[in-house]
Structures are given as structure tokens and as C-alpha cells.
Amino acid sequence: MDMQEIIEEVRSFDGVLVVAPEAGSDFPELSWGDAYFYHAPDGRMPERTQPYGTIITKDYPDDTSSALDAPGRFRVNIHVGRERAESIIAAASLTLGDTDPTAVDVFRPHPLYGDAGWVCVIDPAEATAGTVLALLREAHEAARARTGRRAR
User: Fold this and answer.
1) CA-CA to 3 of 20 to 30 Å: which in 54, 112, 124, 152?
2) b or e along 15-39 (b: 16 or more beta carbons within 10 Å of the residue's beta carbon)?
3) Nearest to residue 119, comparing CAs of 59, 70, 54, 39?
């Protein structure tokens, strides 16, 4: 599964905003080529809300453990909540054992935000692609519910 397939699936979600900074845009150069997913039915990037999912295409200064600077690599990051993250990681560990943090197609805790309920997969493929898309949909629905609660 490639990055564009994931972005196109997410774009089908009701009320989604996909922010994909490109070269020359007003976004910081470091973010160019990445993608950020928000529930934003008005089409405007929320000012006080974090994305519920991201696709990162390169190492960041404080996040190099996934070796994303290799050509063609990307990492999907999804906020699933602490409890759900623990169960996803536990299931992955039972199936695969402890794996290298650069391994592809394996669920891992996010290298920086794992304790906050984020999971990630480098280059999702046969083992994780379906679950990645399902988790992104669930994260979108959770973000939609939060938006609804804030509006009340």
C-alpha cells in the first residue's frame, strides 16, 4: 500500500481535511511531503486540535528511530488512545515478538507519542494495511465525536 492510496481512502471520510504541505507552500519546509488528517467539516485547519493521523516521509530532528530518510519509506501514525494502543502493540508483540524499530509492516508504539496512545506502521503492506485503514477511520470517528462535544 502506498502513501497516496492511504490519503485517498482518508479523503473519503465525511468531514475530513487532509493537509499535505508541498514545496513552496506556507508550511515549514520540514513538513513538505507529509500528510496530516483532521476532522474539519468546515474545511479549515483547526487551530487548537492535533491531527488524529499523519503520514511522515522523513526523519525529524527529534525522531530518527524509524530511518525514514531512506528513499520511498514513510510512517503512518494514528491516535487510537492509550488502552487501544496497548492492545494493538500487545497483539503485534505476540505475533511477531520484539522487532527492530525500523521494521516495515509492523505495528509499533509511536517513537515519541506512544505513551499518549499513538501507534505507527512503517510502509504498511499485507500484514497491516487493512488494520491501518480501519484504525484511521476509527480515529476519524473519534475526532468527529470530540468536535461534536465541543460544539455543544
Assistant:
1) 112
2) ebbbbbbeeeeebeeebebbbbbbb
3) 54
CB 45 within 8 A of CB 115: no
Distance, CA of 107 to CA of 119 (rounded, Å) = 7
- Grid look-up 501507534 returns 119
Surface-to-core class of residue 111, CB atoms within 10 Å of its CB (0-12 exposed, 13-18 middle, 19+ buried): middle
Write the pLDDT tens digit of every residue in 69-101: 999 999 999 999 999 999 999 888 766 656 688
Helix, strand or coil, per DSSP, at residue 89: helix
Cell numbers placing 132: 491501518
Between CA 78 and CA 114 the distance in angstroms is: 10
- Interatomic CA distance for residues 127 and 38, integer angstroms: 26
Name 86's Cβ contacts closer than 8 Å, sequence gap at least 6.
none
